[in-house]
Amino acid sequence: MMKNNNDSHWSVIIVGGGIVGAGIFRDLSKHGVKTLLIDKNKISSQTSKSSSKMLHGGIRYLENFDLGLVKEALTERNLWLKITPHLCYKENFLIPVYSNSNRPLWMILVGIGIYHYLSGQISKLLSFKSRSELKKSFPELRTSDLRGAGLYEDAVVDDEQLTIEVVEDALHNKSCDVLENHALKSLVKKGDRYFLTVYSGEQKLELSCDELVFATGPFTDYLLQNLNCFPWTSKLLLSKGSHIWIDKKSLTLPNPVVLTPNDGRVIFVIPYPDKILVGTTEVKLDGPPKEIKPSEEEIDYLISNLNEFFSNTTITRDQLIGSYAGIRPLVKEGSSDLGNTSREHHIYQPDRNVYVILGGKYTTFRVMASDVASKIIRKMKRPYMPHLSMEPFKSEKKDPEVL
Predict the structure, then answer these.
(1) Residue 337 neighbours by CB distance under 10 Å
(2) Interatomic CA distance for residues 233 and 129, integer angstroms
(3) What is the rounded CA–CA span in Å between residue 53 and residue 46?
(4) Mind listing the domains of the chain with CATH numbers?
(5) Which three-class secondary structure state does DSSP give residue 363?
(6) pLDDT of residue 63
């Protein structure tokens, strides 16, 4: 809830409290811009807490020659490892390769070499595990037709908490605020200002701003078409990704494993101290469903692949201890093939002072935020300072008002 309900006009209002909206909020806050962040639910309550919980470059995007995107994401991964070590940590990811795998071992090793090179890890260009080494470290892993495995480094992150702490850091600027559990119901432009009506149950608030940002991810097309304040055609290709949590005792995993089924998908199996995360699926959607949860078919798919690759044990639904799903807001391009759709982000301006950001990856949220924030700040005739968003989070102990 806002600290000051009487403050109804803002320089910038951001609609959408996921990681991208949070990143824009923090960047504007660092530049001293009076900004309000609005979400119809809690901060980080949708897609941004439903990822595969990794900060990664996307090693599989190398096949599409998205080298710029991969390098950008790896640079961002390294940044967050440095400035938020309490929220993310490095892990070695293993890719087992079989004689019938879509990608031969040499291709996997070359890809890992390029991946490490793009991340600046020159000393780790080639990482290989033999069949005999794998039998010792991963006893449940299928060894028939096993050729070996590649090993590469990436990061695991608490995605929900990172989003929350990005917002909390922005709130050190006392001219910035957050409004949770308020849904935007109407939008009207009068002169150079935008007037928003938001509701929380029966409570109504009237707000206005000079600049308006939509960082509403998979809900963008539906929201903007319903508001009908300016022309908006559908831009999104929606993809549901589901994950399951299984009991820690189900598998012996010294580090994460990347499964590569012959359907071209990639499934991450990531051990945690008390459980194991398995995901993700990729299911095309016609629009945001009312209830976002894994389907029975998706759960069966993930369990089936676990049993295919870890054939020296049997995973059943009895070992399932939880599940979740999220929707990726991919931007439509020529192809409707989800796997080949670029993860590049796009910024649209349907009106002079309105910004809509779509696409991208969780890992690159700071870059996405910078692209929007820099446009707004420069329009205000202020200098944009990109290094501000690279600073560590401010400690409460250093806040002069607390001291």
Answers:
(1) 11
(2) 49
(3) 13
(4) 9-47+160-233+341-396 (3.50.50.60), 91-156+237-336 (3.30.9.10)
(5) helix
(6) 81
Report percent pLDDT > 70 for the chain. 93
Q: Indicate if the pLDDT at residue 286 is higher than 90.
A: no
Q: Where are the beta strands (DSSP E) in 181-318?
A: 183-190, 193-200, 203-214, 236-247, 257-259, 267-271, 275-279, 283-285
Q: Is 364 exposed, middle or buried (0-12, 13-18, 19+ CB in 10 A)?
A: buried
- Count the residues in the chain: 403
Summarised one tens digit per residue, pLDDT across range 67-84 is 888 999 999 999 999 999
CA atoms within 13 A on the CB side of 297: 5
> In this predicted structure, what is the pLDDT of residue 111?
92
Token pair, residue 51, equals 């990822």
pLDDT above 60: residue 166: yes
In whole angstroms, give the CA distance from residue 94 to residue 263: 19
Integer Cα distance of 114 and 383 in angstroms: 36
Q: CA 345 to CA 364: how far, in whole Å?
A: 9
Task: Give the containing element (helix H, strand E) for 11.
Answer: strand 9-15
Contact 374, 386 (CB under 8 A): yes
What is the pLDDT confidence band of residue 398, given thresholds at 50, 70 and 90?
Answer: very low
**How many CB atoms are closer than 10 A to CB 348?**
16
Q: According to DSSP H, which parts of 98-199 are helical?
A: 105-118, 131-137, 159-170
Q: For 114-125, write each residue's pLDDT tens digit.
A: 999 998 875 565
The answer to whether 20 and 357 are in contact (CB under 8 A) is yes
How far is residue 33's CA from residue 10's CA, in Å, rounded to a whole number?
9
**Cis geometry, peptide bond prior to residue 233 (ω within 30 degrees of 0):** no
* Contact call for residues 193 and 210 (beta carbons, < 8 A): yes
For strand 275-279 and strand 146-157, is the pairing parallel, antiparallel, or unpaired? unpaired
* 374 contacts 355 by C-beta, under 8 angstroms: no
Give per-residue pLDDT as tens, 231-252. Answer: 999 999 999 999 999 999 999 9
